[in-house]
Amino acid sequence: MWLRWLPAVAAPVAIASGALIGSLPAGASNPLPTKTPAEVLELAASHQVRTFSGTVEQSAELGLPELPAAGKPSGSASGPASAGSVASVIELLSGKHTARIYVDGKDNARVQVMDQLAERDVVRHGSDVWLYSSKDNSAAHLSLPAHTQDPAHTEDPALPNDAHGAPGMHTPAELAQQFLSKVDPSTAVSVGPDVSVAGRAAYNLLIEPRTDATLVGKVAIAVDGASGMPLSVQVTARGADKPAFASGFTSFSLDAPDPSVFAFTPPPGSTVKELPVPDKSHDPAKSHDSADAHGPGAMHGGAKGNVSITGTGWETVVGTAAGSAAAAAPLLQDPLLSQAAVAVPGGRLLSTALLNILITDDGRIFAGMVPPERLQAAAAAAR
């Protein structure tokens, strides 16, 4: 699926949704010890939280079009769109989403996305991964190989997001890492007044790109004063006066979740599909080192495998290289794209407040938190 390689530049946007109301939480009543920006960055980078649970609310105002009636099942206007469709992607980029998240070490995790009329679950217990949608009472199972890394990260496993309409929601800490990885001399960092998130005192870490060649104006990350774990992320587009995206805990606990949370049995009458282990050797997202893709010092022009990377840090553009036009096929064949994207020289543009995606006439895809002309330039240079 075309979104799989986007985390290199825009994972926080891929899971955004809904209209944002309000701003950062009210200031904490008990001031935390004063720390410099460097000390708060170190606190967030060195946190060792591996066991926690809580409820996350994500909301955004990205300027995407409303889904037409055809984009959702008849009589189910509030239900989730079909998995894998452009409608499902736009749904994740609009509307309001709430998720319950449970993590106990690297082998136990559960995400429950609560739609208005349905629930979607991703559950990992050891090597078993289950995906379930109450919308159609369907489940899918995947057995992970022994070498698989921590499933709390978006890249592991990658297949479920595409194969079964997995929630695709991330913890604020995962989202924060996407932005913290871009902190270098091109970024101004400061610490604002303390904030309170889910009843916990947190440092208000403020990140602001020094370049106007990005759509991002500033990022506010609430870093838990006790554990160092990021508890909320808010992103404001350049020139805007309120955040376009917000993700944060409304409840949070560092206690180990009950083990029963990670036990999953398909409900009676559900259809069950066994999924093959994803072959990452043919995945554009895995054709280059993900750590390199996220690291600000490694985002230099060039291409690896089927992915081209141009620009650095906030100005990074990731695209599918020539000869990989098949990646755009699902988009080009989906009728909803004609409403969500507009014609521009050289292709069609899906534009949001924080992310632009260009689908070229020859079937390549370029994405970045940059103005459209940057994507067009990258596409021209990659011919």
Mind explaining what this structure looks like?
Helix content is 16%, strand content 32%. With 383 residues, the chain is an alpha+beta fold. It has a 12-stranded mixed sheet, covered by helices on one side. A 7-stranded antiparallel sheet has the order 13-14-15-19-18-17-16, with helices on both faces. The longest helix is centred in the last third of the chain and has 10 residues, at 372-381.
What is the element layout, followed by pairings?
Layout: H1 7-14, H2 37-45, E1 51-60, H3 86-92, E2 97-104, E3 108-114, E4 119-125, E5 128-133, E6 138-143, H4 159-163, H5 172-180, E7 187-197, E8 200-209, E9 216-224, E10 230-237, E11 245-253, E12 271-274, H6 290-294, E13 302-304, E14 307-310, E15 317-320, H7 329-332, H8 337-340, E16 342-344, E17 347-351, E18 356-360, E19 365-368, H9 372-381
- Cα-atom Rg, whole angstroms? 20 Å
The low-confidence parts are 1-28, 69-85, 149-167, 282-304
Q: Tell me what portion of residues adopts beta-strand conformation.
A: 25-35%
What distance separates the N and C termini? 22 Å
Gross morphology is globular
Describe the main β-sheet briefly. Answer: 12 strands, mixed
Short description:
The protein has helices spanning 7-14, 37-45, 86-92, 159-163, 172-180, 290-294, 329-332, 337-340, 372-381, and strands at residues 51-60, 97-104, 108-114, 119-125, 128-133, 138-143, 187-197, 200-209, 216-224, 230-237, 245-253, 271-274, 302-304, 307-310, 317-320, 342-344, 347-351, 356-360, 365-368.
Question: What labels describe this entry?
Answer:
16% helix, 19 strands, single chain, alpha+beta, 32% strand, 383 residues
